[in-house]
Amino acid sequence: MSIDPRDPVAVAQALIRCESVTPAEGGAQALLESLLAPLGFEVWRPTFSDEGTPDVANLYARRGEGEAFVLAGHTDVVPTGDEARWTEGPFSGAIAGGELYGRGAVDMKGAIACMVAAVARALDGGGELPGPVAFLITGDEEGPAINGTAKLLEWAHARGERFSGCLLGEPTNPEALGDVAKIGRRGSLSGTVTLPGVQGHVAYPHLARNPVRELAPALTALLGEPLDEGTEHFEPSNLEVVGVRSGTGAFNVIPGEAALQFNVRFNDLHTADSLMALIRDRLDDALGAGAYALAFEPSNADAFLTAPGPLVEAVSAAIEAETGRRPALTTGGGTSDARFIKSYCPVIEFGLVGQTMHQTDERVAVADLETLTRIYGRALANAFG
Ligand SMILES: [Zn+2]
C-alpha cells in the first residue's frame, strides 16, 4: 500500500514502524527517499564513518536551485526500554484515544512527517514551493553525533549547497503546540579537578598529605561566585559538581588523591575557551597554580543565539496563525544538532510537545500532527515571503 505524503499521520506511522534505534537506519531514510523523490526532490544518502564509532546513514534532498531553506531532523530514536511496559508496541504506530504511539512519535519522526506533508501539500495539484527547499536528515542525533549532521553539513557545503535558513523539528513545546520555539542553545563543558596528596596511615598524618582538605577551597572556587547573571535570551550560566572521588574504602588510610567532576551549561557571555580560562583563574586563586591538575573533556557545544529577525518572525508568525499564540523564544534545555547548523545559516527549532520524549509510551496527539503540518507550510511560505 502506498503512503500519501500529504497525510502526516500515515507518514509518521510508517516512519515509526521502521526500527531505527541509533545507529540503525531501519528503513526510515529509504522510506523518506521513496516519498521525496516522486515530489521532485533530488535525494542523496551518504553514509559517514569514523574510527571508534558506528557508520551512520544520512539523507540530503533538495528541490529547486539556489540558496535552500532547510528542514532538518533525525530519523534515529532512543531505545524502547522494556517493550512489555508499552500500552501499544513501540514500533506499532498504533492510534488509541486520539494519540499515535511509538518511539519517535514526538522525537522526532512525527515532526519529519509534518515536514514531508507540508511540502507535499504545497506541490499538490501542480503547485510549487515558494523557493528551493532541502531536507537535512541524520541518523545520529541520539548517539555520539560524530557521523551525523556535522559531517552531512560539511558534505553538502563541499558540494556547493548553500542555505538561507533552517527549521529544526525537535520537540520544543512543554505543554501545548505553540508554547516555545528555541532560538539558541546553551553550551556545555565538562571537566575534572584533581588534587594530589600523599597516601599514608591515618594515625601518622605528618607522614601523609590529605588531599580531601583541599576539596573545600576547590568547591568554593567552583561554586562560590556565580559565573554571570544571564543575558536577555539566556538564563545565568550554571556549574554543577557531578562527582567527588577519593578514599580507599579503609578508615585507617589517608587517600593519595581527590577529584571533582563538573559540568557547566553556559550562555553567550562565554565560549568554551573563555570559560576554561575563567575556571583555571578561580582555581589558581583558591589553591595556587600548580597545586592541582585540571582537565576538560572535548567540547563541540558552544552557546549560540539566532537573534530575532526575519527567520524567527517567519516561524513565530506561522505558529501564531495556527495556534493563536506567539511562542516564547527560549534557549533552555540540552544541546541539539542546531549547534552544528548555526555555523551555516540561522536556525530555529520548533516541533511537537515533548512531554513523552524518550519515555515508555512516547506518543503524540493526532490533531497536533495536522496543526504542525500547517505551521510548517506557513513557515515555509513566510520564510520566502
Ligand atoms: Zn530529537
Automatic annotation (TrEMBL):
Entry EC no(s): 3.5.1.18
Domain Peptidase M20 dimerisation as annotated: residue spans: 183-288
Catalysis performed (reactions): N-succinyl-(2S,6S)-2,6-diaminopimelate + H2O = (2S,6S)-2,6-diaminopimelate + succinate
Coiled-coil portions: none
Residues annotated as catalytic: D76, E141
Key word NADP present: no
Binding site for Zn(2+) 2: D107, E142, H358
UniProt binding sites for Zn(2+) 1: H74, D107, E170
Entry cofactors: Zn(2+); Co(2+)
Pathway: Amino-acid biosynthesis; L-lysine biosynthesis via DAP pathway; LL-2,6-diaminopimelate from (S)-tetrahydrodipicolinate (succinylase route): step 3/3
UniProt keyword annotations, A-Z: Amino-acid biosynthesis, Cobalt, Diaminopimelate biosynthesis, Hydrolase, Lysine biosynthesis, Metal-binding, Zinc
Note describing how the cofactor binds: Binds 2 Zn(2+) or Co(2+) ions per subunit.
SUPFAM superfamilies: Bacterial exopeptidase dimerisation domain, Zn-dependent exopeptidases
PROSITE patterns linked to this entry: ARGE_DAPE_CPG2_2
The protein's role, per its UniProt record: Catalyzes the hydrolysis of N-succinyl-L,L-diaminopimelic acid (SDAP), forming succinate and LL-2,6-diaminopimelate (DAP), an intermediate involved in the bacterial biosynthesis of lysine and meso-diaminopimelic acid, an essential component of bacterial cell walls.
Listed PANTHER family: ACETYLORNITHINE DEACETYLASE, N-ACETYL-L-CITRULLINE DEACETYLASE
Family: Belongs to the peptidase M20A family. DapE subfamily.
Quaternary assembly: Homodimer.
Protein name: Succinyl-diaminopimelate desuccinylase
